[in-house]
Amino acid sequence: MSDELAPAGGALWYEITAQTPPALVEEVSALMIGVAPGGITVEHPIDILGPEMGFRVRGGEPVLVRAYLPSSELGAVLISDLRIGMEAYPSVQLTAKPIYEQDWAVSWREFFGVVEAGGRVVIVPTWVEHEVQPGQIAIRLDPGQAFGTGHHETTRLCLAALDGLARPGITMLDVGTGSGVLAIAAAKLGVPRVVAIDIDPIAAEVARRNCDMNGIGPEVEVSAGTLRPDHPGRYELVVSNISTPANTALAETFGVVVKAGGDLVLSGILTVDSPGVIAAMEAQGFQPVSTAEERDWCRIHLRKN
User: 121: closest CA among 154, 157, 145?
Assistant: First the structure.
């Protein structure tokens, strides 16, 4: 395993690549999924045969398993966890490539298009011309270096939930706001006050810029930090699109900050992990209302007793 995993100054994300023997791809993929907030990619070595003949996979050669981790305190913890887990696979070569702001912007502009999550909200990148249909609510978004574009299943699932839960007369907490898309959507759907927090200060800056770009002012309060049990706010709606371990660790705090009768929407959770997450929330006085799934991911909607 390579030692080239030390953080580089100024990097925003790290592209982690595990060069893996074919026989270990499933095990290594499972290990990397456990620490990667945005999922993984698996790249098999191929030979291009031509435009009409497709390609051929070269058997027996190493496979590249990639994940992206944030350059932050959270990312350092995840990289450490990955290092420890990968010690069981000495034949796997693990390397990290820093991604800087310019690289990030170029890659997003190449792949990020208009997103419709099935409800009223449509997400439109700032550099794309798009005619919004009657009844749709547009969010103009420049993801910059923050997650939360609507392309990932977990964000789309949360947007669909907000379409029914965001309403006038309530306050909402957005945990792990990323690009700010859920906070902006909530405000545009009528929530008069949204508190948005993210562990990464760069994400918080991006979220504030995106709020300003969409004409969202003090109704959305954005800050960098972690949600703690002494958090002073109490909310009718809390949305937390982070990860299974992070959501589970916050169960007791959710039990404090969600008002009686209030709603808790959790995502960033693999479907196989949902029973454990639900059990942790039930221990804090929540009852499951519904779940929704997209590919391997799920969203859990609970209500506080």
Answer: 157
Tell me the per-residue pLDDT of 72-130, one tens digit each, with 9 for 90 and over.
Answer: 767 777 888 888 889 999 999 998 888 775 555 555 455 567 777 778 898 887 777 77
Q: How many CB atoms lie within 10 A of CB 272?
A: 10
Q: Phi first, then psi: give them for residue 177, nearest 5 degrees.
A: -65, -25
